Amino acid sequence: MRVIGIDPGLRQTGWGVLDVGPTRIVHVANGVCRSRGEALAERLLSLFHGLGEVIARTRPDAAAVEQTFVNRDAAGTLKLGQARAVALLVPALAGLPVAEYAPNAVKKAVVGVGHAGKEQVERMVRLQLPGITVAGPDAGDALAIALCHAHNLRHAGRLDAALARAGVTPGAGR
């Protein structure tokens, strides 16, 4: 399964694509979509087109997007929410299932600690995907989001297999 992780931002939206197999996770590509223009609508539109091009080129099967971190600046949080809407909408329009993860869940899945620093997350991404070149901090965060989703997919697959062996329909009651 091919997964795209998306780290939404109004100026830069990071993305990272991984191929997730039963025993290996392989880096495919990563990068940053930079918004153009001064008006909010122009910036959102450029992110929309940039992310759409990435999805068309890399052809993922699923997407994972980081949830908004709410801070004290309500106007900034609202603008980030609009960029996040683009990050949710583009893969949904492509017919992809979209998962959302809280920043602490991503850090816990990748580093093992929910309050890890940005440097720790990037270091663990590089350890789990040796030899890659990360296109910047936003791309590194997007790869971490994709890794988080990959780990969750693997665990869900194991749970479904165990339930099937026990004679329970996978996904029932969830």
Structure commentary:
It is a single chain. The protein is α/β, with parallel strands linked by helices and 174 residues long. It is built from five helices and five strands. The chain has helices at 40-58, 74-93, 103-110, 118-128, 137-165; strands at residues 2-7, 12-20, 25-34, 62-66, 98-101. A five-stranded mixed β-sheet has the order 3-2-1-4-5. α2 (74-93) links the parallel β4 and β5. α1 runs parallel beside α2 (74-93), α3 crosses α5 (137-165) and α4 packs across α5 (137-165).
- Reading the helices and strands in chain order gives EEEHEHEHHH
Number of helices: 5
What is the strand tally? 5
- Beta-strand residue fraction: 15-25%
With strands numbered from the N-terminus, the spatial order across the biggest sheet is: 3-2-1-4-5
What is the mean pLDDT?
88
Helical proportion? Answer: 40-55%
Q: Could you say which overall geometry the principal axes of the C-alpha atoms support?
A: globular
Distance between the ends:
22 Å
**Rounded Rg:** 16 Å
The low-pLDDT segments are none
Derived structural class = alpha/beta
Largest beta-sheet details: 5 strands, mixed
Spell out the key features of this protein:
alpha/beta, globular
List the helices and strands and how they pair.
Layout: E1 2-7, E2 12-20, E3 25-34, H1 40-58, E4 62-66, H2 74-93, E5 98-101, H3 103-110, H4 118-128, H5 137-165
Parallel strand pairs: 1-4, 4-5
Antiparallel strand pairs: 1-2, 2-3
Helix pairs in contact: 1-2, 3-5, 4-5
